[in-house]
Structure formats: structure tokens, C-alpha cells
């Protein structure tokens, strides 16, 4: 039985160390969940999943205990005995759930040392553990992290040498203390190993016990800590000393813009909102200790006040940071608009002053009183003299003690060196150590008030004045514009004219604001849509506030005066394009759009209001300016447009005169006044209308009728005669094959798209249209020969295009090669065009005599003719003109006395058509001459 219990203990510790439930491994073999498996399956599971290899005696002992009468193994009863005292059993209602999971005594299956120690050694180990726990808590050490590098497999043990090297101990620990700990936590089964996890477990127990004692002491001596934030509120602080410290911290946080949370959460890697007391004190002193003049007792008092409720020696830093990060404000104010925010009194956020002793204050009182008396008698304004020394990169409101002494000497406020040091200490800035001169000026000058805390009565008086003040009259000032007296009809005429000129779709600017298509929107939305339409200062026309109110009032809804009927406005404006309901009244007359064109606002009726003298002066000035612009060919419009960035067609009168001066168009004062009066508008000067009179643009001529007559004339002339009529269909087919091989043209791609049913026939007209896009460049006679050759037998007006394609494709390959594998197809090699220039017999003999004469001279002189011909062929296409060909042979001295008839024979022999021009193929000519001279091809 002892052996069986030892096996179960071993398996139980192994499952605890690996954090596994052994029952899950057996369920894979028990599909019906009967609770039984075979003995072989049980042993295989222990070996494959847990790595437990049992001996024959151990196997027989386990099988004898858990074997069923039918020979199977009862794994469920085995798992219950393994999980007994460790797993939570929901079916056991006799025991409270919290009592079903006792804490494990050891970790990862480690063992306690059974070697006894003396009572003195045990007491010393206990004191060492308390010392180590305190050292780890204050220093923030982690024992597991220290041994993690040596314990790669997480067995919980390290060697003695590794334990000596990695154990973090304080300076007062010697070798004897470390050796005592090594003996206390030595592994009983494996010699030379030390269980550091057991040491960690004991340290955690010591820390828990000390934290519980500290909590009991803090509960008796200090009030209960505040709870965490709930809806932006905290429990009221009952300790006056803590409230004073927190108030001082709030002022420092507000003045210096410090976020305490950024300093504290660096110590909380897992974001548990808890840090140790030492980390809290260090972070607080680093963040705001100097600005708020904190000391260590105050920091520890704050740490105890915000201590965690679980009894551990940790601090709820997030509750503290939330209370400090929003000083003089209410958190989540956007959700509580009616909340009253605390307004600090004037001067409450000023720099705090150091505290002097009672003796130093009494010693300094006479000096301060003497300085006050002199300032009052001499009516000195000391603040301005001190401020002259504050010339740094920012307004710091401090000065050095040397500058402070120099300023007092300049004001003849002589103070002894000892009293001067006391003054510098009394008004010293806590952050920099310099002198806070506004505080000193406020202490000695009764009329100067900048940092003094305001009284409550002053605050109430200012609040009452703010309530009775007419803010609406201050913010909204009446603005008077030129177009305020415009009627509604005149305003609509302007808007219709603007929409007609810009061709704007008015409905598109309004419809997005009315998602329910109710036809209504608010006044602010209506004005915003008008601004997007172009009725703004940056648009085509500006509407004043009174004009906007006029439109809103005209289209206001009868049921809700704050809503505007925008659909009615859109219908009235769109009437410039068409009328609504035309489908019901097709004979209704639609007014011409020219009737809705209106001049710019402020334009006068020149013909009716201008006197004859003004009109005569304007006509003479405009005629003279137009003649000058036409003679000099001046570009007037760019100069005027430079002053009109938004292209609104207007400019100021000053800008108009400036533009005229820049262009050199000088006028008399009377002429300028007449021109300005003619084109004056509300926005200034309408230079667009002025330029239309100065440089009238020619109307665009209607060219449709003329172009139509030209097209009819061209079509009536018929087709042009063929320049190179073909005489034989075989010659045409040879030319098509040659061009297809050279330019890699697939004729089938251009023809099959016109035969959707793949009948093999297309009309003659379609045949011509298809080949015209292929690039073969066939003439009328060539088309006629092809149509006669491939005319369909069934339809005389059709062409058998597949037969034509087969004949052309024969230049590339032979058809039906899959049926004749032994056939030897011949590749079609096109000859140069000059090779097919056939001459009569007599002409051929004359050309051969000329070529023999040229070849004889070339052989005698060893002349290279090809480079001379290539110098005229820049694009290297192998041809040159007839004049160039004649010039090369003449310059080489090969031809001395050829007649014109002989030159013509040479041209006819080696001619090659390039477009519409007949050139000479000098490549073929050189090859023929070299072959007659006995040279290699193109080599002398």
C-alpha cells in the first residue's frame, strides 16, 4: 500500500506541476463516457502524455486496485483519487466551494528539506526571511526573475553555485547567511540542488503577514482610504492634513501641467492599478516633489491613505492620479453640462513661498516695514524695475539673487547682506531657487495686486457684473451694407441670373441636408446651402445678413417659423431653365432664357441717366483706347485678372486706375470718371464689361452648313484613278503574300469578325472594308482582281474569304500537315521589289552592259560603294532617291559619260516604290555589281 500511495503522490505532483487534468487524456479512448478503458490504454496514456514509466510491480498494484470485474480499468475512480483535494467538485454540496480548493503546499512538485536545524538557526532563518522580504519589497526585486536564466526548464531548482550567484541579497548579508539559506532549502532527493521556489513561497507568506499587520495599524491610526472613482466622484477626505497636501498637489499639477499617471504606471507592467509603496514614493518625488515641496513623511501619508484594500502593502495609484489629473474641474463634464465647476480664486495658483522660522520672520519684519514705508513715501513702482531683468526666452517671473540685489540698490532701498539673503530665501521660487519678484512687489507695494488671493466678496461682485452685462449687444453689432434695401423680387432676379450663367443644379446643394425629403430644413442649414451654391463672399455673389433673413422669412414654414421650405425656393430658381408641369400642358410657351439675365448689382442705366456730355466723353475715350490697344497688340485681360484672384469680374476703382497705368493707357480725369460711372457696381468696377467694349470678341461663325457643303462636294467627285493598276491576279496575290511575310500580318484576324456564322462568305463591300484596315494598301484594280478570283459560286455578290486566307497563309505553312506527315513544305521567301522590275530584252542587255562597265571599274579600284550610299540613308531602309543615287556614282568617278537614257534604264531596273515616290534600291544594286566584279557579298 505504501508503494501504491507513493505512485499516486508522484502522478498527482506531476499533474500539479504541469497544470493538467489527467482525466482529459483518458476520454479520447472512452467515446461513450463509460468511465472505463483497457489496461493497455491506461498504461499507454501514462507513458505518452505524462512520461510515467511504471515497473511491473507498480503496474500490478495499480491494476489490482482500479481493475473492474470485466477486466477493464476504472480510470474515473483513479482520476478522482488523483484530483482529490485539488480540483473543484461541483457535485459535492456537503463542502463549501471555497473550502474545496486548499492552497498547495509546494510548487512544481518540489520537496522540503528533511534535514533538521537547531532552534537558533530556525529563528535566524526567520529573521533573514523578514529582512529579505523587506529588501525585495522596497527595491522591487523579483526572485523568480533572478533565477529564470539558470532554470531553463522551470523545475524550481538550481545548483548551489547558481544559488550563490543569482540570489539578490542586501549588503549586510554575508556568506554565512547565504549558506544557511542554502541548507534550509536544499532539495532532499537531488543532492547539490536548492529549491528557490520554496524560498519564494516563504517570502510571500512573510510579506502577507507583515502587510496584514501594517493594515491593522493603519486602520487604527488613519481614516479609511477613499474608494475608486465612481461616476467622476470620490469619497470626501476627512483628514485635514491629507486634504492640505492634496490641495497643494492640485495647484502644482495645474500650474506645471504634470501628468502623474505617466510617472506611476511605468511600474505597473500588468496594469493592475497597484504599485508598491516605495515605487509610489519615488515616482511622486520625481514627478512633483520639487514643485509641490513634498517631503518623505507626506508621501508616506499619501501612500497609507491610498493603500489597497486587499491588505497588501501596495498603493492604488490610479485613484490618486485621477484625483490629481483634473484639478479645479469635474471629470466627464461633457455628460454633466449643468454641473458647477469650482473656480479658484485669483492668486491661489501663484507660486508658493518657502517657510521661514519664527525667529527669521521676526528679524525680517522690520526690514519689510522699512521698505514698505519708503515705497509709499517715494511712490515707487518697483515691479517695472524688476521686470526689466526678466528678458529670457519666456516670461519666467523670476530673477537671480544678484539681479534682485542690483535692483534694490538701483532703487536706493539699501539692505544689509544678511537681510538680503533672508529676503531671497523668503521669496525664493521652489523650482529654480531664484527670487519671485512679483511676490516681493506685492508684499511691499499696496497698490500692486497680481498674485494676492482675491476675497470672496470681490468674486461675487464680479460674477454679478457678468450676469447683468448685455453680452448680446457686445457680440452682435449691426452691420449695414449697400444691398440691404433690395426687395425680394430684385434679389430673386439676381439669384436666377447667377444660376443661369453658372448652369448650377440648385437641388443638389440642398437635398443632402433633408434626409427625410420633408421639404424643410433649418435656417442655418438653408444659409449654409446658399453659401455652397456660390452666394457668399468667396462665391459669385455675396448676400448680406439682411438679404439672407429676407429669403428665410419669405420661404418660412407656416407651422414652424424656424424651418425653411427649400423645395419652393428651388422651384422658383429653376424656373429660368424650364417650367414645371410641361407634360400636362405641351402647348405652353416657355419664356426665353435671355429674359432672366440681369446686370451686376449697382449697375446704372447708362442710356437713361447719363448726360450727352458724359456719353460723348466716354465714346471718345473708349475709341482712342481701343485704337491704341489694337495698334500695339496689347494683352489687356491678364493685367486686369491679376487683381481679381477669385475671377468675379470686378475690382476696386483704385485697382482699375492702377491697371490702366501699368498698361500705359492714360486718360484725362474727366474720361476716367466717365468710364468709372459707366461700369460702376456695388462691388467696385465691372472690368469684364469694360473689356467687352474695349476688345469686343468676334462672334463664333456657324460652320456646320459650310462643312456639310464641303462633304457633299467631296463625295460627289467619286474615286480617284488608280496610279498603279494591276494586270494579273497572281501578281496581286504575290504582293499580298510578300507584305504579309515582311510585316507579319494575319489576314484572318481582319476578316473573321465580319462572318459571325462562319459560313466562309462575306459581301464584296465588307471584304473591301476588312482589307482596308489590314494595312495591305490595295488599289481599286487589285480589289477587283481579288473579287473576281474568289467570287462565291452561290452568291455573286459575296467573296469566299476563307479560300483567300488559305492562299495567303500558304506563304507561312502548308495546310493539313497533320494528314500528310511526310510532306516537305517550302518556305516562301519574298524577293526585293527591285528584283521583279522586268525590262524588255533589248533594255535588259543595255543594262547588263552598263553594269559590267561599272563592275570592271569597281574591281580595278577596289571601291567600297556601300558606305557612300548609306551616308544618304539616315533611317537605313535600303533606298535613296534617284538624284542621290546619281550623285554617289558621279562622285566616285565610276560613271563618266552616261546618257539620260542609260540613267533611266538603271532607275527602272533598281526602282522601289516608297509611298508615292520611286526610289532606288542601292542594296540590290551593290549586290549585283559585286557579284559581277567577283567580290563576296558586299565586300570589295
From TrEMBL:
Signal peptide bounds: none
Domain EF-hand: from-to ranges: 501-536, 640-666, 742-777
Stored SMART domains: EFh (SM00054)
GO molecular function, one term: calcium ion binding
UniProt-recorded name of the protein: EF-hand domain-containing protein
